[in-house]
Protein 1
Amino acid sequence: MNIQTDFLVIGSGIAGLMFALKVADQGTVALITKKDIMETNTSQAQGGIASVFDQLDSFDLHIQDTLSAGDGLCNIEVVEKVVKSGPDRIRELIDLGVSFNLKEETGDDCQGQHFDLTREGGHSHNRIIHAQDMTGMELQKVLSRHVQDHHNIQVLENHVAIDLITCSTRIKRGVVTTTHEDFCCGAYVLDNTLNQVKTFESRITLLATGGSGKVYLYTSNPDIATGDGIAMGYRAGATIANMEFVQFHPTCLYHPNAKNFLLSEALRGEGAILCDKAGRRFMEKYDPRRDLACRDVVARAIDTELKKSGDESVFLDISHKDPAFIQSRFPNLYEKCLSFGYDMTKEPIPVVPAAHYMCGGVVTDMVGRTDIRRLYAVGETACTGLHGANRLASNSLIEALVYAEAAATQAIRDLHEMDFRATPPAPLWDEVGTSHGDELIMVTQNWDEIRRFMWNYVGIVRSDKRLSRAKRRIDIIQDEIREYYWDFKVSSDLIELRNIAMVAELIIRCATHRKESRGLHYNLEYPDRDDLRWQKDTIIRRPLLS
C-alpha cells in the first residue's frame, strides 16, 4: 500500500507534534507513532523546561551553565540560539493552552516573571518552568489534542517505521539497501494493527523518534525508546555523532516493581539530599555543588559509592521539608512512592542511576536538516550541538521546541522551492521468499543480552577491556540479526531488536574511539580530559555500497 503526503513525521513527542502543527497549514501531514500518541519520552518528563524569566537571571548565565555542563563540546552558536529563543517558545505553549505553575500571589497572570521557577542540577539560577511534577504529560496532552483536531494531519498509531527510503533505495526480500546518498522520499512502515508494511512517500521527512534508553538494562525511558530514528538515519547514510555520551539519571526509584520510574531532579532542586544507608551525605566528596552537581558527576558518585559499599542503592531524602510542601509540589511523585510503600515526607527513598538521555544522534544543521536532503531530525534523535558531552537538566524540551520551529520554517520553504517532479516512485516493500519467524527465542535472547552487556561494559564507567568485550558480542549478535532478518517477515519486536543492536554498536564504536574522559564518557584507562587531541565531536558514517 502506498500513502502519499507532503510531510511525514515519525514520532509523536513534543518535537514531532510541534513540527506537525507548524507545517500543517502548508501541506498534508502523516504522523506515525509506534504505540498510542501519548506514549512518548515527552509524556514521562517530570521536571520542566529551562528558560530565562527571572529578573536576576540572564541569557548569558544560562548559556554559561549549558557550556559548563557540555564540558567543552557544545556549539556556542547553537547554545545561544536555543537559550535566546526559549522565552518565545514558552509563550507559544501558553497560547496553545499549556498550564504552568505560577506564583500564588499572581493568580491567572501568565507573564514571564510570575512563573513558579525552580532549580535543577548544574543551573546557577531558578529557571525551570514546570507543571506540577508532570510537565511532559501536560505538554503531551495539549499538543496531542491540537494535532488530532487539525484537518490536515493524519495520526496513525501502532505504526512502526522500518527504514527510510532514499531515491536509490532497492528492496530485496525485506532488506533495504541504498547505493548512494541522494535524498529521502519517505519510509517503510509496519502497520501493527493490520500486520502490513506500508510505503509512505513524502516530500519532507522528519525523524522525531525520541531516545535510546532501552539499549540499557536499567532506564528511565518507556519501552518505545529503542533508538529507531538514529538507527534508520545511520542505515540511510546520515552522519551520526557523539553516541558515547549517554546520560544516566542519578535517581530512579529502586524497587523490583518500579519499572522506569524516575524521581525528578527537581526534588534535589527543592532541597532533597543524597545519602548512604546510614544517612551520611556523600556528594561533598565529589563536587562543591554537592547534590546540585551536574548529572554525570552525581551518577558517577553514586556508582562509586555503590561499588565501595556493595549496597544495592543509595537514598534520596527530602523528609526534612514540610510535608504539606512536598505533597503540593510533588503530588504525583508522592502518590507513586506511596504505592510502592515509601512515604517521602517521612523517610529516605532508595534510588539508583539509570540510562536516561542520548546526547548524540543524527547530525543536523541550525535548522534541523541532516546531510540527506529532505530529511530532518529534531529532539533526542538529533545531535544539534547544544548538549556537547553532557546535557544540562531540562534543556531537552526547550531544544525540541526551538528546533521544531526552525525545522518547520525551513521545511515549508523547501516544500515551496524544491522541484519534486523528478522524484522517482518509491519501490513497494518486497518480502517474497520470507516466512513467519519460527525462532522467536532469538529475538528475546539477543534483546536481553544486549541490554545486560551494555549496562555492565558500556555504562557509567567504562574501560578498554569492557568495550572490547562489548564489541565482540555485538558483532556476533549483529550477524545473527542480519541472518534472521533476511529470511523472515518483519515484526515490531524484530524491528526494535535490529535498532537497539545498531545503536549499541554505534555507542560502543564511539566510546572505543574516544581516548579520554569527558562529560558522560568516563574511561578508567584515560581518566583525564584531553583538550589537545579530543576536544572534537566523534563522527561516524555508514560505508556506502557500490
Protein 2
Amino acid sequence: MTIFEIIKAKRISAAIAVAIISCCLTIHATAQMANEQSIPKEIQDQYSPVLQEKLFVHTDKTFYLPGELIWFKIYAIDGLLNKPSTFSKVAYVEILGADHKPLLQSKIGLDHASGNGSLQIPLSVSTGNYTLRAYTQWMRNFGPDHFFEQTISIVNTLKESETDTIKKIKTYQIRFFPEGGDLVEGISSKMAFKITNSHNEYVDAAGVIINQQKDTVLHFSTLRFGMGSFMFTPKKGEDYTAILKLNAVTIAEAIPTVLKQGYVMQLEDASAADLRISVTTNSKNSNSSVYLIVESHHLVKAVQSNVLLNGRTVFVIAKKDLADGISTLTVFDESKQPVCERIYFKRPAAALNLVLTADQKQYGIRNKVNLTLSASDAFAKFTNADLSMSVFQTNSFQTEQYNDIYSYLFLSSDLKGSIDSPEYYFKNNDAAATDNLMLTQGWRKFSATKKKASFEFIPEMEGHLIKGKVSNKRDGSPVKNINTFLSIPGEHYQFANSISDSSGTVIYSLHKFYGRNSIITQTNHSIDSNYRIDIENPFGDQWNNNERPILQLSADWNKDLLQHSIAVQVENTYNPDEKRMYRSFKTKDSLSFYGIPDKKYFLDDYTRFRTMEEVMREYVGDVNVRLNNDHFAFKVWNEKFSTYFDDNPLVLIDGLPVFDINKIIAFDPLKVKKIEVVSKKYYLGSSINEGIISYSTYKGDLGGFELDPSSIVIEYEGLQKQREFYTPLYENDDQKKSRLPDFRNVLTWMPDIKTDAAGKTKLSFYTSDLKGKFIAIIQGITKDGLAGSATLHFDVTDQP
C-alpha cells in the first residue's frame, strides 16, 4: 500500500497528510545521499523533496471568437516521477487578461489523474491575447511559475480592437545571462543572450561588445530563435556595452555587473557519456572545498565535493545518472552557500508513439471520417493510454501550432516564459541551441539562497475544500476554537463542520459538489452569536512576470475572420440547446454523511398531524420531546445503553443544522417528507453528537424554513458540470439533406479516448458544411509516464 493509499484509508487531516508525505520523501532523499557522508547536513536540508504536481492542458484550438466554447482536458502529472498523479482531485482553470484580471474561472474535478471541461467566451470580450492557466491548491505552495500557462487569441469582430492603437514602430531589447549567475573579473565565462522586440517576438541579429574606450572587444550574433552565446573575460576596472543595429534602430545595453570576486561555472560535454563542470574562483579561499548537487525532477541525483586548487576544480557527472528532461546543477562554497547554478537538458530516451490514420485523404461535406489510432512504446510494444483529440479547421489565423504534452513535461514546464518551437529541441540534435535555451530561459533557476515552500495551501486529495475565516463581528479579529457549520441544502445535501484554528481559519471538505449553489455557513447561535464566517476565494491571486506576445491583426485575416464570425453566429442561433447539453451526474453515494440511519420515518405512511410536536411525540419513538420554560429540546434514545442521551443531538433540516428546537416545532409538518434518526454517538471532526435527527423536505429546499439572522448565505460555484460536445449525425440521405446549417469549425472534441490492451482504437465523426483544410491533433500519456502526440491533415471539398 502506497503512502497516498494509507492517507486515504485513514482519512487523516490534510495538514497531517502533508507532513507525512514530506517525511516519506525526505527519507527517500536521505537514502539517495547516504553514500555521501562528506556532504554537509546544511546542504542536505535544502534538498528535502516534497511532492510536485504538474498540469498539462490540451485545448481544442488556440484562436477563438466571442460566443465560442473553449474545450479542454487536464492531465495531472507527478512531478517527481513524470507519471499520472491522483494526488489532487480539483484543478483550477482561468482565462486572464493583460491586467491579470480573470475573464473566466472554473473548478474542474480530477478523476484518475485527468479531468475535462469547457468555458464559453463572453460576447463583451476585447480583442487580444489571453493567458489560460491551470493549477491545483497544492501547486500554489510553489508559486505561479509552476502553473500551466498557454496563450490563446480572441478576436471580437464586433468591437474595435485595442491592438489597433499599438505603435507601428517596434522597439527591441537584448538581455544577457552569465552562465552560473555572475560575471567575475579576470575569469572567462560563457555569456548567453536573447533579443526580442516589443511584441515579445524573437529577433535574429548581430552586434558588438565595446569597452569604455569605444574599442570593440568581440562580435556576437544569434544562433537560433533570437538566442546566442559567446565566451567573455571581463577585465578589472573595465565597463562594457553591447551595441546592435536593427532596422535603423541602434540599441545600447550595458553588460551585467561584473563582480570583483566570485565564482564561475562552465558546463560542457566531456564525452558522449559524461558532463564536465568547471568551477573557477578568484576569492581569497582559492584552496577551499566546494560542493556540487545535481537535482532532477526535484530529487537529488548526484552529489560531489572537491577541493579547489589555485581557485579551480572540475566535476564529472555521468549523463546516465540524470533523469530525462531538466536537471539543476548547483555549486556551494565552503560556507555551504550556493554560488553558481545552471540547468542542463537531457533528451528523453523514449516517448509514446501515436499513429493516426484516416480512411481517406479528402472528404466531402457531411461525410463520415473514420480514423484508426495505435499507441506503442519505444520498443514497438503496443500500450494503452489516456488520450484526447481535437479536429478543427486551419486558416490564416488558426494555424496548427499547439502545445504538446511531451515537450511540456520534459522541457517547457521547467523554463520561464513561452518557448518558441519547443519541438525543435526534441527533433534536432542541436546542442548549441539547446544550451542557449537553458542559459537564457532557464537562468531564473539561480538564487542566492534556496527557499522552501511554506505549505500554506492544503492539497485537495478527496474533493473540493472550502476555506473560510471566523472573525469577531465587533472588531474583525480572528477567533479560534469556534465550531462552525457549512450546509448546501438539496435532495442530496452536503454538510460539513470545522473548528477554527489560531488564525480563525476553517476548512470544509466537500465531495462531488457540482454547479452553482447556495451555501450556508453558521456557528451555534445559542452559544456563539458574536462571530461571522467569511468564505475565501479559492483562486490564485499571484502572477508571474512572463510577457505575453501582443496579438497583431493582419489584413490577410479579413476574409477568414468574416467567415468564422458568420459560422459562430449561425451555430449559436441554430444549435443553442445542443451547446447546453451536460453530462448526467450520478451521485456517488445517495446516503447522508452519517450513512444508514437507525430509524427512518416517511410521514406519508402515517396519518398526517397538523403540528410537528404531535408528529414527534406520536410517531418518532426514538426521540423524547421535552419542554422547559417554553423551550423545546430533543433527546435521542441510546440503543446501546437503553436510555436517553443526556446532551442534545445534532438536528438538521435538508442538511442545515438547527440549534433552536422551537423552530422545528413551529415548522409545517406537511412540508416534511421523511425523518431519519441515528441512535448512537456520532463523531464529526472533533465534535461529539449524541444522536442525529435529520428532516428532509420534499424538494430539499428547506421548504421556507426561517434561517437565523446570523447565518451567512452566498452563491458559490462548485466543480464544473461537463458539457457534451455536440456533433450531428449524417448516417442517411435525409440527415445529409437537412436544411439546418452546420458551420462547425471544430468537427469533434474527444477528451476521454482510451486505447485497448492492444494499444488501438477506432474513432469517427462527421464533417460540417465548411470546406477547407482540417487537422486532427491527439495527445496523451500512459500510466507509466510515456507521453506523446500525433497530427493528421485532411481536406474537405464539394466532392469527396
Protein 3
Amino acid sequence: MSHPHKRLALIAAFTVALASTSTASLVAQERRTVSDTKEETSKDIPIPKEETAVTQHQMTIGGQTIHYTATAGNLLLSKEDHDQSEKPYHSIFYVAYTQDGADAKTRPVTFLYNGGPGSATIWLEMGSVGPVRVLSQSPEPTNNPPFQVVPNEYTLLDKSDLVFIDAPGTGYSRPVGKGTIKDVAGVDEDLRAFTKFIIRYIDVYKRWNSPKFLFGESYGTTRSAGLSATLNEAGVQLNGIVLLSSILNYNARSAGLDNGYLTDFPSFAAIAWYHNKVPNKPANVLDFVEQARQFARGPYAQALYEGNGLSDADADKIAQQMSNFIGINPTFIKNSNLRISATRFRKELLRDQNKILGRYDARFEGPDAEAAGDNPGYDPSDTGISGAYIAAFHNYLGTELKFTSAETYNNSGPGLNQNWNWDHRAAGGGFGGGRPQRMPYVAGDLGDTIRKNPHLKVFAANGVYDLATPFTATEWELAHMGTESKMRGNVTWGYYPAGHMVYLNVDALKAFRADLTKFYDSAK
C-alpha cells in the first residue's frame, strides 16, 4: 500500500513535484532513489522482440482449486496509434495471471500498477491480491533473509485475471528505438503510454469483451482517474476502478491553503490513538476518527478561517482541543499557528522516546539519530519492508515464473522523476476540466467519466494510519467530482487499520479482500 519505500521501495511515494508550488510535504517522493541516466541520442536503442515466459500453476482459494497460467513478458508500443509501420518507442513489462479454462469473453481482467511516479509494481504484485505474497513482520522491521513467499489466500484470482504492469521506464519497461525517458516522463505522457498498453493487451489477448477493472496504488490512483477518461475516449468502457491510498489533486497543498491541515487531522488522531497518546482512549479507532472529522469540519475549520484574527484565548482553547485528539503538546500546537504538518507530527508525537513514525504507515516507529530537529531522519515504514519485497520478487521471478533478463530491473525508474512533466490536460468541462493544469487535478477526470458512463463503479480503499495519502483528503476530492447526487452510490469505501500499503496488515488484507469481492460482484 500503494513511497521512498517500496519503490525503491514502496513506491515510490509522490515525487517532490509540488515543490514548485510549496506542496512538497504531501507529495514528496513516493518510493525510490532515482539514479541519473543519460538518454540515447546518438543512435537507436535496439528493439527487442515481444517474448513471454509462460508457466502453469495451481492454488486453493476458499476450498476451490484454481489452475492458472502466469505470463511474464513485454509488449511494444508505437507512438502513432494503429500504425504498424511506425517503429516502437517503448517496451512495457508485465506479469499476467489468467485462470485456465475460463471464457475470455466474460472473465474479468484487472490492470494493476503502483505509483511514484516512477515506481515498479513489485509491491502490489508481491503483497496485495496476486497469487503469492511476501511474509513481513509489519509493523516491525522484517528480519533478514531468507524471506518467505507463500500462496496468497486473499488473492483476487478467483474473481478476475490480473495483469501487473511496470510503468514505462520502471522494472523491465524501457525506451527502445528512438524512444527516450522524456517520452513517458509526465502525467499525460504516462497516461498515453498506459492507454496504448491496455489497448494493445486486450487486442493481443482478445479481451475486448471482458469486464475491465483498474487497480492503482498511490500515484497509481492519479493514473487510474486519468485513464478512466483516456480509455473511455478510446472506446474502452470500464466496469470498475479500485483506488488504493489515493492522491487525486496535487494542488490541494499549495502555499496559502489550509485544507491540507484539516484533512490530515483525522489521520493524526488515528495515529495518536494507536500509540496511546490520547486521554480516555475510546475502544474503537474509527469512532475516534469520526469525532476528529467533526472537530476538523467545525471548530478547527472555523479557527483556521479566522486566521490572524483569532484571539489568544480562542487559540489556547483550540490548541488544547487539538492536543486531546492528536497527542501533541498544546503549546507546540499554538506555536505552530495551529498548523501541524505530517512531517512535524512524525517527529513530534514520540519525541520524548526519541522515536519517529513512518510516513507510509505510522504504525512503524524507529529511533532517530537525535531527538532534536523538525524532520525525521528516515521512514521506518519504508526501510522496514523494502529489502524483503525486492529480494523476494527477484527470486520469485526467476525460480517460479522462469523469467530471466540481461537488463537491470529498476525498482525506481532512472531519470523519471527528474524529467517528470506535471502539466495535465484534464477531461471534460467544469471543476477544472478541459483546461491545461500546471499540476494534475484528476478527480475531475473521474467525475467526467462517471457522468458519461453512469455504470462505472469506484472502490476507495484507505489505511487510517497513512500519512502519505490521508483518507479525509480522498473523501474531500471524491465528494467534489461534480457528479449528481444519484451517483453517490457509484463510490464505495473501505477503511482499514493499516497504512499506505493496506495489505501489510494481514487482518486488514482479509477485510480488504472481502470488500473487493463484493465490489467486483456489484461492478460486473
